[in-house]
Amino acid sequence: MVPRRRFRTGLTPREAVALQRRMGALVERRDRVGRVRYVAGVDSSFRGALARSAVVVLDARTLAPVEVRTHEMPVPFPYVPGLLSFREIPVLLKALRKLKIRPDLIVVDGHGIAHPRRFGIASHLGVVLDVPTIGCAKSLFVGGHDEPGETRGSCMPLVHDGERVGAAVRTQDGVRIVYASIGHRVSLRTAIRWILRTSTRYRLPEPTRVADHEAGLWASSRD
Fold it and tell me: Which residues does residue 45 pair with via DSSP β-bridges, in sequence order?
């Protein structure tokens, strides 16, 4: 899977922030998805100075994994809140290049436009690949919301600086919420629908749940 835009590396944190501000205008917040036959999940883990990223492609109808690719390399960027994409995307792109199946939709373990500059990792990855992406994060980064109901499918708007940037979503009865946001080429409504559609038994959607597992399997790269 080849990126459509160059991902810039070697930036200082200040330069990375400036790039996010410029590229945020490229995010498409309306649906341009098409038929989804394959949905992927991506996630990364870190061990000291090493990073490991995993991409798992699932059959969108059955949610059965059909391809898994991983990559390990030195951590390319320091940990800076709000700049997660510069830490993870270089490793993710290496894993994505190994794919034989091109996913039609990618669920990212992280935020999209629910970000101070409206350009979190889900948006950045989507713009670089020109693929529909959804942000599904486990914790709140910006904004606030009322508590959703306790039943599956309950959701409340996530608002930051007066703008709705996502939703707090209950994926199963009584479980902790997740945070849905637009990544690229999807509407918030579509993002919520796919998160619920792929969250069949657990709190997390199957694409990111399986990717999280694979990213944690160190020294077992599936090249």
Answer: 52
Q: Provide the 10 A C-beta neighbour count for residue 176.
A: 11
CATH code of 13-215, in short, is 3.30.2170.10
- Could you state, in order of their start, the residue ranges of all structural domains in the chain? 13-215
pLDDT tens-place string over residues 127-157 = 999 999 999 999 999 999 999 999 999 999 9
Sheet of 50-59, strand order: 65-74, 50-59, 38-47, 105-108, 133-137, 178-184, 163-169, 155-160
- Where residue 167 falls (left for φ over 0; alpha for ψ -120 to 50; beta otherwise) is beta
Other residues' Cβ atoms within 10 Å of the Cβ of residue 211: 32
Query: Could you read off the pLDDT of 166-220 as tens digits, one per residue?
Result: 999 999 999 999 999 999 999 999 999 999 999 999 999 999 999 999 999 876 5
- Distance from C-alpha of 215 to C-alpha of 149, rounded to nearest angstrom: 32
Q: Phi/psi of residue 40, each to 5°?
A: -110, 155
**What residue type is 52 in one-letter code?**
R
